[in-house]
Amino acid sequence: xxxxxxxxxxxxxxxxxxxxxxxxxxxxxxxxxxxxxxxxxxxxxxxxxxxxxxxxxxxxxxxxxxxxxxxxxxxxxxxxxxxxxxxxxxxxxxxxxxxxxxxxxxxxxxxxxxxxxxxxxxxxxxxxxxxxxxxxxxxxxxxxxxxxxxxxxxxxxxxxxxxxxxxxxxxxxxxxxxxxxxxxxxxxxxxxxxxxxxxxxxxxxxxxxxxxxxxxxxxxxxxxxxxxxxxxxxxxxxxxxxxxxxxxxxxxxxxxxxxxxxxxxxxxxxxxxxxxxxxxxxxxxxxxxxxxxxxxxxxxxxxxxxxxxxxxx
Length: 313
Known about the structure:
globular, single chain, eight-stranded mixed beta sheet, 8 strands, AB_hydrolase_fold, Rossmann fold
């Protein structure tokens, strides 16, 4: 199928591995690490210290590794952002997440806690989500030690990270867990039913497509049925959730589930901002030279900043 991609994105397509698939998980992890090496690292303009910690994991589970980014030139108490990397629930790590974490810490002055959650298929749902919940609980519990304002803790991620973020917001609400000030849902993976028009149509789009989505959910669920925390689109009640920003890409199978979820958040009375980026595919924000990619990246920072300020500009 021919897609009307933004012209500035076309040269980057040639750099993508042909037939990108997660059918062979180990090979896909290797390709993602290789692709990450091509991205420009973010160089902070202000001092940001980085420290890795092992924190208590879910009951009966291993400790969770987190990487904490602290903007040392900003006096506390600072806002905080729990960052959840993407990768279809099966790929990604702390290094993939690093450029965005540096940017949030540097540009916003927030302490960023990046979560190295357990990946499927070795660790199917709810392992990854429970690791993220443990990181949120730890951030809130250690707010004083981290120099963080416990009333200004946001959560966010892109792709599967966006889906995990949405599930984490639901889990925190329903468990009476730490207060979440804001949720950033970038091109989120939310619905295991795979029935939206964009999901059924986009079978050969770059970076992400229906065949990969089918495998992603198969690995993540491990043969068990999805509940609303695994697949937030299944949630019947979205009221009482934190304010949200949702982004979607035009030629992305995840497009419609993001649009529908944002609409339902609005209908449930949740302050929500939604942006659909024409001419883009899944992961377009990584193309640092394209104007549309620069807008996507800038909006991420601005949305988190405003979310941590209670919506104020």
